Amino acid sequence: MCRNIRQLHNFEPPATPDEVRAAALQYVRKVAGSTSPSQRNQAAFDRAVDAVAAATEELLAALVTTAPPKDREVEAVKARERAAKRYAS
Length: 89
Known about the structure:
The chain has three helices and two strands, in the order E-H-H-E-H. By secondary structure, the chain is mainly α.
C-alpha cells in the first residue's frame, strides 16, 4: 500500500497539492489497514487525509536545503531503470 508514497521535497517543479494529497491518502490507508473505509468510518478517514495533507504541506514549506533541486524527469528515468533491474526475469 505505501510503496506509492514518493519523496516530495526538493524537486523542480515543487510538489503539487494533488501529489501531497495522494501521499496523505496512501499513508492513511496504510495506518488504517484498508484501502477503502466503511461508510461509518468515511468521515474520520477523510479528516485524517486532510490533516496529514496539511501537515505535509506545512513540513514541505518549512524544510530548508542547500542541495540543488532534483529534476522530476531525471528521477523518473532512474526509478524506471531500478524497477527494470529489480523485476527483470
